[in-house]
């Protein structure tokens, strides 16, 4: 290594180390008080740097929040992958995914909420963040492909997002308890019922269910 390379390498290492400290401090702030508690001055103090140093690593606080969100998505992806287990019946796998999502939201509520509370003020969401989101949707699309093997991939992708929206709505409102008090056992049962009904409805629409030899396709005498 030349003398010129050493300072450059040291600067890169310091920048990476500062980035990690800021991510840890930002994540801790959100966990403790939600997204609204993330302030540049407090963040700098927790990370042991000047306020201006934040912007040598991140373009702005939005970029920092997106990076924290990417870590949350990665943790959620790991939780959902461990929840899937053996493939089995498509409805069973969809149910396990929904339960895994609810369990993650309960365990990491402030970080989970921050994913949906953060706004970019009209700016486009970066492509790399959308790719992280799409990996989660792919976990839903896999059992949907077994449930509806003849459905075009684009249509399955839309169904995956529709199912996620429904599950997220039940989880969000259930944890918020603004509509009605929702005991944990009740929320678990209602989420299971929703996913099972969704899967049963799709199965009834499949060509196999509507074939002449199937119960759904036969007529009573």
From TrEMBL:
Record's keyword terms, sorted: DNA-binding, Transcription, Transcription regulation
PROSITE patterns with a match to the protein in the record: HTH_TETR_2
Signal peptide: none
Ranges for domain HTH tetR-type: 16-76
Record-annotated DNA-binding residue ranges: 39-58
Keyword Nucleus assigned: no
Matches recorded under InterPro entries: Homeodomain-like_sf, HTH-type_TetR-like_transc_reg, HTH_TetR, MT1864/Rv1816-like_C, Tet_transcr_reg_TetR-rel_C_sf
Gene Ontology MF terms: DNA-binding transcription factor activity; transcription cis-regulatory region binding
Name of the featured protein: TetR family transcriptional regulator
Organism of this sequence: Methylosinus trichosporium (strain ATCC 35070 / NCIMB 11131 / UNIQEM 75 / OB3b)
């Amino acid at each position: 290594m030349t003398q010129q390379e050493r300072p450059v390498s040291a600067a890169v290492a310091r920048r990476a180390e500062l980035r990690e400290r800021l991510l840890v401090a930002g994540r801790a702030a959100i966990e403790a008080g939600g997204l609204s508690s993330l302030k540049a001055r407090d963040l700098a103090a927790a990370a042991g740097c000047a306020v201006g140093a934040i912007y040598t690593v991140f373009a702005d606080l939005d970029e920092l929040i997106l990076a924290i969100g990417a870590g949350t998505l990665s943790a959620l992806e790991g939780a959902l992958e461990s929840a899937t287990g053996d493939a089995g019946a498509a409805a069973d796998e969809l149910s396990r995914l929904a339960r895994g999502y609810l369990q993650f939201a309960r365990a990491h509520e402030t970080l989970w909420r921050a994913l949906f509370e953060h706004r970019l003020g009209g700016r486009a969401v970066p492509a790399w963040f959308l790719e992280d989101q799409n990996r989660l949707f792919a976990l839903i699309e896999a059992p949907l492909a077994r449930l509806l093997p003849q459905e075009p991939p684009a249509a399955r992708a839309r169904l995956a997002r529709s199912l996620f929206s429904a599950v997220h709505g039940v989880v969000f409102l259930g944890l918020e308890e603004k509509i009605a008090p929702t005991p944990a056992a009740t929320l678990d049962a209602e989420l299971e019922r929703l996913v099972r009904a969704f899967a049963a409805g799709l199965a009834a629409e499949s060509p196999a269910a509507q074939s002449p030899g199937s119960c759904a396709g036969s007529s009573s005498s």
